[in-house]
Amino acid sequence: MLLLWLTPQLATLTVIAGRVALSAGSPRATERLAVEALVIVQFAWAGLMFPVLLGGFAGWAAAVLTALPLLQLSGFLAGAPPGDLAAAGGCLALWLAALTMLRACVPTIRSGSAVAGATLLTLGGLLLWYLESEFAGPVSIAHYLPLPSLLLFLRHQGNFALPLSSTALLAAICFVLLLAARNRRRRLRD
Fold this sequence. Notes:
Number of domains: 1
Strand content: under 5%
Largest sheet: none
Low-confidence stretches: none
Oligomer: single chain
Radius of gyration: 17 Å
Helix content: over 70%
């Protein structure tokens, strides 16, 4: 399972370190985007694959402990300040904790809807953020979602309170769902 988690992250870092142009208007020094690109891949991939990747505390710890060195490597490529990397690592750990708790309380047969919800929070939030920035709309809900708010922080366009609070709120909601699911299972056994 760890190989499934690490492969997209290593591929992202390889593309960035190789200075592969990701679009026609891509900046020449693509490594400046290493932290943002890796954070997007980590959040989105975890949201898509959490029923397979995150199996309890051991799965969460393995995912966090293997993602942090890659995040540090991306920071080296981008020349990012250590505080930005610590903030990104903290939000990633909270996101993975939320997904681990969600996996524990959602039965396997209904995990598709949980994956859809996690994908909506990550990729849907990025799409809303893009549409807002492209068409100069009002501040949307995208700025309050964990991934777009973290990216705004990494671009120094926002403070750390927003990504931390939005990710912590999601983790708290998943914790409440986990407690409710365990309570329900206990009542069904009795």
